[in-house]
Amino acid sequence: MATSAQPWQLGLAGSAGAEALATSGTSSTEGPERPGPLQDETLGVASVPSQWRGVQGIRGETVNCLHTLSYPPAQGQGLHVTGVSWNSTGSVVACAYGRLDDGDWSTLRSFVCAWNLDRRGLSPQQPSAVVEVPSAAMCLAFHPTRPSHVAGGLYSGEVLVWDMSRPEDPLLWRTGLTDDTHTDPVYQVVWLPEPRHSHRFQVLSVAADGKVLLWQGVGAGRLQLSAGFALAVQQLPRNTKLKKPSRGEAEVGATAVAFSSFDPSLFVLGTEGGFPLKCSLSAEEAAVTRMPSSVPLRAPAQFTFAPHGGPVYSVSCSPFHRNLFLSAGTDGHAHLYSMLQAQPLTSLQLSHKYLFAVRWSPVRPLVFAAASGEGDVQLFDLQKSSQKPTVSVKQTEDESPVYCLEFNCQQTQLLAAGDAKGTVKVWQLSSEFTEQGARETELLDQLASEVAS
Q1: Of 136, 170, 212, 232, which has the fewest Cβ atoms less than 10 A away?
Q2: Backbone dihedral angles phi then psi of residue 74, each to the nearest 5 degrees
């Protein structure tokens, strides 16, 4: 995979990305092995109205499958969809292909694929763009403002950034294999604005090696470490009973991350030990670790929450309440926590197998979605029930796990979910799930204060 030598500025405002994506609206004729450029026609003058854009949501508690997307070469290798992300226009969905079961997938060739759902002649099995990846891709995230830039984390520990509008040379930056690189699989990547330059972004990565790292794009296609954190058992706040680390390990594996919508320095980490951690980017205490690093690593944990019965796979902070977050784990439970207390406000058993993902709705304060190890996508409306899903849809016929899901913040009636069969399904939500009701934020406040008291 070639490395771009051009000294791009990570996340700088500019029109280069948009110009590369805007097209005249001509359809592509490339075959599935040679996908054409990612043509985001919503950015060009010849915008193609999608079949659902601007349409009022369907009524009633219904969820329809609009698209079943896949990349046959990835499915032929038995790859799972390990992550999904919507781009900043809401028109393009991308997925990471990798493996989440046992095995060494560090040298497994895999893919990142993207589909422009507004493209003329969309072919569900022919992505608009395909990037070959040198190791299993575990996660990905589109840039908040540049529609074609996507960051990904690999099983090998590397973090990379691609420009999906450049099919011949998509790689913008990579961490490379240095002392700073994660030594274990990267489970999540997030774009964060730089503290003093809100229009410029860095990539944050979390991994099973217990490190949380911030990367900045520099010249010659390199991601350079700008700040870092490490989770050491002896530095975790002791407000709950923690399991002893296995094999005498000092580091605590990080599995998921979610940032507060109200405090840019506050984030929640999911861990292999099953306990969520409240953390801060402003932490100054040095981390007790022997892991090599070009920058001093700090200890971010401020508060430890009561654990799940197994590793936490997903965390999600409420966009509407500063103290509420959700977590999901291998015990099949979703926990609703307040930042103010260790015990969960409520615990819901959503699956008899693992629960792989949980996400709050970006538009309905009392709605969230969960992905189960039994092949279901579940939608909860806490206004209707705090114990059972309002709607549960079967994503996979054979109950293969659903590993990831993301709401579309631009086209809010769309929800994408990826599974172990190598498919991404785009679900259309009825207006019941997208139109905020009266007093909804008030009811959310009530939920947080009543149960916490």
Answers
A1: 232
A2: -70, -40
The H-assigned helical ranges of 54-183 are 72-76
pLDDT at 120: 86
Per DSSP bridges, beta strands 222-230 and 297-298 are: parallel
Other Cβ atoms within 10 Å of 161 Cβ, number: 27
Nearest to 203 by CA among 39, 322, 85, 80: 85
What percent of the chain is helix, strand and coil (3-state, nearest 5)? 10, 40, 50
The DSSP letter of residue 245 is P
Cα(289)–Cα(254) distance, integer angstroms: 15
Q: Could you give the CA distance from residue 298 to residue 217 in angstroms, rounded to a whole number?
A: 21
pLDDT of residue 290: 85
Under 8 Å between Cβ of 168 and 136: no
On the CB side of 61, CA atoms within 13 Å amount to 11
In single-letter form, the type of residue at position 260 comes to S
What does each C-alpha distance from 396 to 111, 242, 411, 419, 429 come to in angstroms?
Answer: 21, 36, 24, 8, 18
In DSSP terms, 153 is beta-bridged to 139, 159
Q: Maximum Cα–Cα distance for the chain, whole Å?
A: 61
CA dihedral 301, 304, 307, 313 (to 10 degrees): -30
221 phi/psi in degrees, rounded to 5: 70, 25
What pTM value is reported for the model?
0.86
Residue among 42, 143, 157 nearest 94 (CA) = 143
Residue 13 dihedral angles phi and psi, to the nearest 5°: -65, 140
Place of tokens 């039994």: 374
Query: How much is the pLDDT for 65?
Result: 96
Average pLDDT over residues 83-110: 93
Determine whether 220 is exposed, middle or buried from the number of CB atoms within 10 Å of its CB (0-12, 13-18, 19+).
exposed
The upper half-sphere exposure of residue 265, i.e. CA atoms within 13 Å in the direction of its Cβ, equals 9
Among 103, 198, 215, CA closest to 153: 215
Rounded to an integer, the average pLDDT of 393-420 is 97
For 33-53, give one letter per residue: b (16+ CB within 10 A) or e: eebbbbbbbbbbeeebebebb
Dist. CA 396–CA 389, nearest whole Å: 18
Q: In what order do the strands lie in the sheet with 80-86?
A: 80-86, 92-98, 110-116, 129-133
